Amino acid sequence: MINGDAAASLARLFTAGLLNDLLLLDIASNNINDITFSAICSAVVDNKEVLALEELWIGGCQVMNNGIIMLASLIRNGYLPRLTVLCADSGCGGKE
What is the pLDDT of residues 77-87, one digit of tens each? Predict the structure, then answer.
């Protein structure tokens, strides 16, 4: 399970550009809330690079309005041009 410290580390990896080629990010059913998810999204913006991410699984997390707004901003501003799968439904507990 990802906790706040792990989410902060994930954000640092995005800021450093070390996850730019990541194709799938499955953080579903983890202890991710609006604050930690927004920090991850902000790290993507800070990196100023387009991501290769094709699938994002966040179902079962506590990502609410602010987190979804941040995600929409990433998509709208071209940071996630290859994203084709987004699972934000509480019923998708991650990929098996």
Answer: 999 999 999 99
Q: How many CA atoms lie within 13 A of 84 on its CB side?
A: 4
User: How far, in Å, CA of 16 to CA of 57, rounded?
Assistant: 22
Q: Assign residue 5 a region: left if phi > 0, alpha if psi is -120 to 50, beta otherwise?
A: alpha
The amino acid at residue 36 is: T
pTM of the model: 0.86
- Residue 65 main-chain phi, psi, to 5 deg: -55, -50
Distance CA 23, CA 35 (A): 23
**Alpha-carbon distance 37 to 4, whole Å?**
10
Contact call for residues 85 and 58 (beta carbons, < 8 A): no
Beta carbons of 55 and 35 less than 8 angstroms apart: no
Q: Scan for tokens 């094709």, then name that residue.
A: 54
